[in-house]
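Example pasted here:
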Amino acid sequence: MSDVVCFGEILLRLSAQNYQRLASAPALEITFGGAEANVAAQLSSLNIPSAFVSRLPEGPIPDRCLAELQGLGVNIQHVQRGGERIGLYFLEPGMSQRPTNIIYDRQHSAISEATPEMFDWNQIFQPAKWFHWSGITPALSPNTATICTDACIAAKKAGLTVSFDVNFRSKLWSEQEAATILQPLMKYVDVCVCGEGDAVSILGATKVEGEETARLTAIATELAKKYDFKTVAMTCRNAERADQTGWRGLLLTDGEVSLSRNYDITIVDRVGAGDSFTGTLIYALLHKLAPARAIELAVASSALKHTIPGDYNRVSLAEIEALANGIGGGRVQR
């Protein structure tokens, strides 16, 4: 029984430690992660019953992956088993002027070779309220693009709210390929999450010059009108160093614009920060929180994720609310 269903790929993550280069690291840390799985985990931590739908092969590593998701409270009953391999990604954490680098090894993964008939969306969506997907999944193969389309159609027929995070990955496909596949699917989307660059290059918004708040407002307004989105959420990162960033967000819903405070963050691990933003935003929208509160919680959650190693945001709702209320920083919690 899940309120939110997330569909995508989860990968084995192999990370260099202590800011070492992958080429010279003597050992790699094993964790798991993937955009939609991260969103499901975030929602489960906020007591929203959530399911992750995917396909993984049989074997001890995929079993460990699923056990970890279950331990985080995520429903995995609709994860199909089959195929030859779980996808991998290698993470080389950046520092100062050296950027973080991610290397994918996910060709021929189990989910990329899934076929549409493997997923009975009418059954999967009973009795869900919400469906979430991202632009990563249709980039994996023509079949996963078709599966995403089928899922969106079934979700709308079932009356679910559909959210989408652009999540453009240049190492998976080109901007032109992404725009060609994704733009026709936006007619099924109610809540769109994106950054400024992806809004322009993938969703076709007009590039805007000038002050940041005015730019984001103009782009969000254009996207809402162009695709009939009910809600547009935009994240904004300002970073000149791999280990430091400015971070805030903007929410446009029902014509009302709300802008969060800005956080200056020292980064421990930025992977999954956008997913924690999206998961917490879905939580806030499901609870019908005021837009200003919704964006503050989403940004506070993702600010905290920057400080947590691994893909999953292992923080509580109380910690998120405290930071959103201005309680946080350098004091020891005693």
Notes: Residues 91 and 155 are 34 Å apart (CA to CA). The longest helix spans residues 142-157.
